[in-house]
Every structure is written in C-alpha cells, then in structure tokens.
Amino acid sequence: MVKKPMIKNLADLSQTHLRQAVEIFAASFYEPLSFISPDVDVIADILQHSFVPSNHFVALLDGNVVSVVSFSTTAGRSHRFQHDHLVDKLGFVRGTIVFFRLRGVLEKPLDLDESQCYIDSVATDTAFRGMGVSSELQRYLLRRLPYKEFLLEVAESNFKAIRMYEELGFTVEERKAQRSFWKPNSEGGKLSLRKQVVTDKAFSK
Q: Which one of 3.40.50.1480, 3.40.630.30, 3.90.1570.10, 3.90.220.20 gives the CATH number of domain 6-196?
C-alpha cells in the first residue's frame, strides 16, 4: 500500500463521508441489492437512512472514504431500517417487500454475548482494492474495539477474502450449506470464521 489510510468512526465524520460510505457499500454489494433497483444511486438513496454511524468505521485517503466496515454487537446491528422511509421512496408494496427482505438480513438478531463483535460486511472502492486498505481497516478494529472475540461469515468460494482473514488471525469454525446473501450466485455455501483477542481497551470513537 503506497499511502497509509486514516481510520475514523463514521459517527465522527460529515454527511458527505456518510454518503461516500453508502455509495461504496451499494456498489460493492450491487448483485444482492439489485432487487431494490438496477440503479446503484437509487440503492444508495434507499440505504443511507439505515446506516448506524457508530457501527461503521471507514478508511480515508486524501479526505475521502475508500473503504467501510460494518459491525454489530449486543448493543445493536449496523443497520436500522424504517418502513415509512422505504414506502415513501418505493411505494407501499415494493417498499414493504424491500423493508422485510433487508431487515431479515441486516437487522436479523444475532446470538452474541457482550464480549463478541460480528463483522457484518466490508466494502472497498474498486479503485483502491488490492492495496491493503481493507486489511488495514480491519486490523484497526481488532486493535481498538474492546471485544474478546470477532466473528464473521464469508462465501466459501471467496478465496481472496478467506486468505485475508486467515492472515488477520481468523480460523474457520463451521461450514454452512446456505449461500451468502452477499454472494448469492456463488457456488457452495459459506464459512463461519472466528478470532479471539486479548484486550483491556475501552471502546473509543
């Protein structure tokens, strides 16, 4: 990586940075989110209200968001959807369908305890992939967040991501037959990964 990114909690940044993070998220996961709209800008418009800023960290280069990671804990998930917002944007029928479908994945209750953190997703601008930005962002989380255990799931065909997580110290715990929401057309199922850390740091944004 040529330049080291600055890592910030999204709650400490501007609405412009929030929009950049949402656009990167929408573009990175366009395939599973395209049921909302074929237009990535419309997808971003629909999703922006759902981002819980404190549950997102971003990597900044030259003041712009280039990567975003979403995480959930016992305090709440990284997204929170409002039915009325989606109905206003999409109409009652489509808005209701999109609300329940997104909520069923991104707001689904997780079986976590207070010492655990679940990494929901990681998205990086295409122009900055392969530069180590995502790895640097996640290393920051592993160092700074006060959790003893980090959990995530990844499509078993996503060999590049699996290799990165193994380099970060994650180990494969379980294979699940169902396909990942984020890679719905990939072959095979998904893997549950886990990393245990020792920390006495208090959470700081």
A: 3.40.630.30
Contacts of 131 (CB under 8 A, 6+ apart): 1, 2
Which amino acid makes up residue 161?
A
Percentage, residues of the chain above pLDDT 90 = 79
User: How many angstroms separate the most distant Cα atoms in the chain?
Assistant: 48
What gap in Å lies between CA 28 and CA 22, rounded to an integer?
10
Domain parsing of the chain, residue ranges:
6-196
Over residues 146-182, the pLDDT tens digits come to: 999 999 999 888 888 899 999 999 999 888 776 666 5
Structure confidence by residue, pLDDT tens digits, 14-51: 999 999 999 999 999 999 999 999 999 999 999 999 99
